Amino acid sequence: MIRYYAALALSLAALTAFAQNTSVQKNSVPEALAVSGADPANEPKLEHFDPNLADKTLDPCDDFYKYSCNKWLTANPIPADQVFWSTGSGLQLWNETALRDTLEAASKNDANRSAVQEEIGDYWAACMDESGIETAGLKPLQPELARIAALKSKKEMTLEIAHLHHLYPGAWQGGDNQSNSPLFGFASQQDFDKASLVVAAIDQGGLSLPNRDYYLKDDDKSKELLTKYRTHIQKMFVLAGETDSQAAADAGTVIEIETALAKAQMDNVRRRDPKNINNKMSLAQVRALTPSIDWDVYLKATKAPASDHYIVTSPDFFRAEEKLINDLPLDQWKTYMRWQVVHRSAPYLTKAFVDENFDFFARTMAGAQEQQPRWRRCVRAADRDLGEALGQAYVDRAFPPDSRARTLQMVHAIETSLSSDIQSLTWMSPATKQQAIVKLKGIEDKIGYPSHWRDYSSVKIVRDSYLNNVAQASSFEFERWVAKIGKPVDRSEWTMTPPTINAYYDPQLNTINFPAGILQPPFFDPAKDDAVNYGAIGMVIGHEIIHGFDDQGRKFDAHGNLADWWTADDAKQYDERGKCISDEYTQDVPEAGPGVKQNGLLTQGEDTADNGGIQLALAALEASLKQQGKSLDDKGDDGWTYRQRFFLSYAYSWCANIRPQIARVLVTTDPHSLPVFRIDNVVSNMPEFEQAFSCKAGQKMVRANACRVW
Ligand SMILES: [Zn+2]
């Protein structure tokens, strides 16, 4: 699948995972969870909004993020094993602790376990068995290295690539991010032009660093990092049994090949426009594009059903790759594939591999100082590999029906806000408005968890090989995606697991999806009133809905087809407003170091969703207060107006300490702006904020050229 949906954030789990390179109610949420034997710094603590956290020594109109977050940020430094620590991080730890309880209970070898408990419990036992993993040493790696050594021709590479795509989580996904696949990605996706059709998609891939910029930029910092990457590859090859000189030569080969592939990749800004990647080909055309890849062998090995056509995201990438396969000798390709095996297996092998992998990808690249406890890494791996089996217990424990009912009610209220907003727009014609309303009415709301749970019974989990279990789950997931080709679209599926602290809009399904994991404090707090909840989770809900109408989402219709429903003049009006946003966010990012600049064209969709989302949430709050005979500028019991508490709660839910190293990675790769900009840029575009804190023209939070799309 080309992951084309727009999420709320690079997820906290992903950020937490990045630190390890492990790929990634009336208060009815129980607060006290014991973390046996863990560092007290790792005590899970849910954060709850409190307006007294505002730092009244500061001026809200000068820097609202600082005003709202300063006290919290000072009191909550980043733990040594983290690269980022936010008001949501306590929830991340809480969710992981709840999952650990489930996994630990299921791992007790007891005859009464259900099939699901056996599966997740044995997975957990194998992951936590560090001494068993040490004893096995290089053994799990050897059959894979032997397969590569035995290859006799470049023609045989195709079958090996298909095998590697099966073995490792996300290794089939391609793209322009860290889950980049060996050589290329392959999956199913809904056709861009006819969303009811599921077709095969072939994507660029091939890298191990976060994206192409890491190989191509020639500033000192980038060059230094590439040198350190080379040393890392060398060390890993030595761990896998090579001599120093062999490993050094092999590291050079890997860098040479990955750099050539990086040069050929389409960049992440161009990939944001679906028209640039919607290249349809017949199988004959695909064969002609890359004669060195034996597609008949590949399609057979992946059990791919026949596809109506093939979407090749980036034909230029494949032209360059074809030439590269021809130009380089088989031995160099064997080195590249050996690197894929060693690199992607590392998190599941002995301590020496885990530590070296941590040292480069987490310490050097992201700024982590210490490894996270094993249990956290195992919880996230289980969530990734068997997430819907594990998620059922999480939902039972943490997501009561009244949370679901109240958040659904908020979703409906926010959808009503957008309907009113569309009707009242001065820049849009009646014809386009009518189409926009059709699209809005077509959005399906998915709250908490899927209507039916995925069946993992065919995944063969054992108690004595972690690497085997990861490979089994990964193969299952890959073939599950491939098997969809030619089948009817399954609208009920989720691409995030229930405990995930994130949310997404899927433009091809026209659905918004809020996992149970984010419908918790501080985002949704059952004990708090509407002003607090609309500021936090309400903005999140508005953000996802606006994704259907951001610069990408607006190109899809109510049915998920890439179809232009805009009049030419309205599209022009939209683009002018969008440009205001992308210009505003093309800005310096001192948090990531001197001279680092954000590309507003990369973040335009997310920034549009932030700016529109908060407007919708505020309008929904206003409507809700009106029903109670109140207004936004009335004061609540705590002396703050509802409008003030709304904005404070919004900012509070994004407070985050962040290491400069990971900030640099995010600015290069992540389509989301850093938290400080998700608050300050947004409120400075809003007269509604100016009114909340009586800000004056000329102050920093009052922007002279304010942007407004929705
Ligand atoms: Zn988003």
Structural summary, described in words:
With 710 residues, the chain is mainly alpha-helical. It has helices at residues 12-18, 64-75, 89-107, 115-128, 130-136, 142-149, 157-167, 213-216, 220-239, 244-264, 274-277, 283-289, 295-301, 315-327, 330-345, 351-366, 374-398, 401-424, 430-442, 466-482, 530-547, 568-585, 600-627, 642-652, 660-669, 675-684, 687-692; strands at 6-7, 84-86, 184-190, 198-204, 280-281, 310-312, 444-448, 504-506, 511-515, 656-658. The protein is globular, with a radius of gyration of 25 Å. The model is unreliable at 22-38 (pLDDT under 50). The structure holds zinc ion (ZN). Residues 6-8, 543, 547, 606, 609 line the site of zinc ion (ZN).
Based on the model shown, name its key terms.
mainly alpha
Q: Which structural category fits the helices and strands?
A: mainly alpha
Number of contiguous helices: 27
**Strands across the major sheet, in which order?**
1-8-9-7
The low-pLDDT segments are 22-38
Helix content: 40-55%
Q: What form results from the Cα inertia axes?
A: globular
Which small-molecule species are bound to the chains here?
zinc ion
- For the report, how would you describe the main beta sheet? 4 strands, mixed
What average pLDDT do the residues reach? 94
Span between N and C termini? 30 Å
**Radius of gyration over alpha carbons?**
25 Å
Strand runs, count? 10
Q: Which percent range describes the beta-strand content? A: 5-15%
